Amino acid sequence: MADIFTLTATFLVLYSLPRMSKLSGRYTAEELLKAELSGSKPLIEGLLFERDNILLVGKEKSNKSTLALQMCCSLTSAEPLFGEYEVPSAVDCVYIQAEGKLASTQSNLRNMTKVIPIDAPKLLFLYYPAIPINRRDGFGQIVSDIDSWRRPDLIIIDPLYQALAGDLSSQPDSSAMTGNLRELSERYKSAIMLVHHAHRPRKDKEGDIIDEGDESVFGSFVWKAFPDTVWLIEKVKGHKNHRHFSCGTQRMGNVVEDIDLLLVEPEPFYLQIRGDQPIDSLIESKLNGEKFTIAQMALKVDKDRKYVSEALYRLIHLKKVQVVSTNTKPILFQKCDVTTSKIV
């Protein structure tokens, strides 16, 4: 009986799905020029834009998922990513985890949010290891789950290979997947980010590894043609926690090309811009009983806003500073009593 109910529910979801994009059809040049089409406003200034298709590529343990998760934290809280890249307004995000342990994600998120602010109700996790989103039953399950929540501005699928039934190198399988992803984007007017593995290193005739950059995408040519932007995150040889972010492939030319990052672990757990110097003690020396914003404290200590932002959230974790307003912008902070953790 349970199987009948499952099949009926799946049928109803699939029946309600748009089979074609609302934008599909015929346009004269005059109609196209006059059409009111959504633009590409930034979700994260210089990095992520509305309704873009993004491919985040990297080898194992290069912290692809860490970067994706940290972006969700910044997007939901409207706090700048890495303290530098502005988030114009808070948005809803969906994170589809198709690999790994949910307990590990929980631990990473807890340790990340000790420093990185998050508006937790605005981030939805869908944990379906090996869900076939290129097939209508898997796609229908995702749509059903999102429809019962709200309309996100970003949907992350991590990793791509565990969300596709068949062969990543197969053009039919890959095209079916990208077709469903376009439907997903059109249905929710959302950006789509795919977390994907790089292929094995290739060597030249002399046996040296060829640096392919973001051309190291594993699978069919479809995965190079589908995204508007390809991001690459890499470990830097000889430096355990040094990560390099780059974007060589981009259609609009509006994405930053290079960021040097440092992985901070295990607690707290997050990525910061490499070279940032902690200024916690300097900020502590400026604390009194008055409320203040990040911008105001940046002026007091004569430091860049990005350093101040991360330092404040570290001090929150240490119960030396507390947020006193979360529903208004800009956020207000105030000194805590170290022994009682209460606002002075």
Structural commentary:
The strands form three sheets. The protein has a nine-stranded mixed β-sheet with strand order 5-4-6-7-3-8-9-10-11, with helices on both faces. The protein has a two-stranded antiparallel sheet with strand order 1-2. It has 344 residues and is an alpha/beta fold. The chain is globular, with a radius of gyration of 22 Å. Strand 1 and strand 2 form a beta hairpin. It is built from ten helices and 13 strands. The N terminus is likely disordered. The protein folds into two domains: 221 residues, Rossmann fold (3-Layer(aba) Sandwich); 56 residues, Arc Repressor Mutant, subunit A. It starts with a helix and ends in a 9-residue tail after the last strand.
Summary of the model, kept short:
With about 350 residues, this protein is of the alpha/beta class.
